């Protein structure tokens, strides 16, 4: 059950998705496959482990390239501590300091963008932020063009983690080397439902809003749930 304020604030997500018949934000994207390799010391920070991953690259508003937009990076990894068997990590274009890491910011390409979890993840009594960058990555913000570029080589994504206002630390590298077929299913990511029990998106009021917003968005575009 969600509170009345959360239900009211989530209404635009359902209405917008119904009108668009797609996700209100990040409506179009490219689905890629790859491998996550942990670079953080064992037991330090968030419990990401080496595994195969599924990634969706997207643009927040869906404006045509080359118009700048807020890029999206959604990643699904198996998680033994998750009730759903997977962990969805969602990052959006943002700044890299303690203030702008919470602000979605547009970029001209995936290569020039920096990414942030926008909100912290509570784990082990601390709040952790996840950030990412695409060193030498696609010089485009068109997800389809980025996926097509895999024909010339893999895409490397560097993930970092930050405890509170501390310094960024290495977390993992993601090597993307295969694109989903065009007729493949476009997955629906949910960082609230698909998360390990030991990790909890925070603060609680925003978590409650996101639960309702994701639910209304799926319902509005006829995705169920």
What does this structure look like?
With 225 residues, the protein is of the alpha+beta class. 18% of the residues lie in helices and 32% in strands. It has helices spanning 4-20, 143-148, 204-220; strands at 29-38, 51-59, 71-78, 86-93, 114-116, 121-123, 126-133, 155-163, 168-179, 200-201. The protein has an eight-stranded antiparallel barrel. The two termini are 14 Å apart. Mean pLDDT is 83; it is low at 1-22.
Task: Provide the fold topology.
Layout: H1 4-20, E1 29-38, E2 51-59, E3 71-78, E4 86-93, E5 114-116, E6 121-123, E7 126-133, H2 143-148, E8 155-163, E9 168-179, E10 200-201, H3 204-220
Antiparallel strand pairs: 1-2, 1-9, 2-3, 3-4, 4-5, 5-7, 6-7, 6-10, 7-8, 8-9
């Amino acid at each position: 059950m969600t509170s009345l304020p959360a239900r009211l604030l989530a209404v635009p997500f359902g209405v917008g998705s119904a009108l668009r018949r797609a996700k209100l934000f990040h409506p179009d994207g490219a689905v890629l496959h790859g491998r996550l390799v942990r670079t953080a010391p064992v037991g330090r920070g968030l419990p990401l482990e080496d595994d195969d991953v599924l990634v969706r690259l997207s643009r927040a508003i869906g404006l045509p390239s080359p118009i700048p937009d807020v890029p999206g990076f959604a990643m699904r990894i198996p998680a033994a501590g998750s009730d759903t068997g997977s962990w969805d990590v969602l990052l959006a274009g943002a700044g890299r300091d303690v203030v702008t890491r919470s602000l979605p910011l547009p970029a001209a390409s995936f290569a020039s963008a920096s990414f942030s979890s926008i909100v912290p993840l509570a784990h082990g009594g601390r709040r952790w932020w996840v950030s990412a960058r695409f060193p030498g990555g696609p010089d485009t913000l068109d997800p389809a063009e980025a996926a097509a570029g895999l024909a010339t080589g893999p895409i490397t994504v560097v993930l970092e983690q930050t405890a509170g206002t501390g310094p960024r630390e290495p977390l993992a590298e993601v090597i993307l080397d295969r694109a989903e077929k065009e007729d493949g299913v476009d997955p629906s990511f949910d960082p609230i439902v698909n998360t390990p029990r030991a990790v909890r998106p925070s603060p609680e009021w925003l978590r409650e809003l996101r639960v309702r917003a994701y639910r209304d968005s799926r319902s509005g575009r006829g995705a169920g749930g």
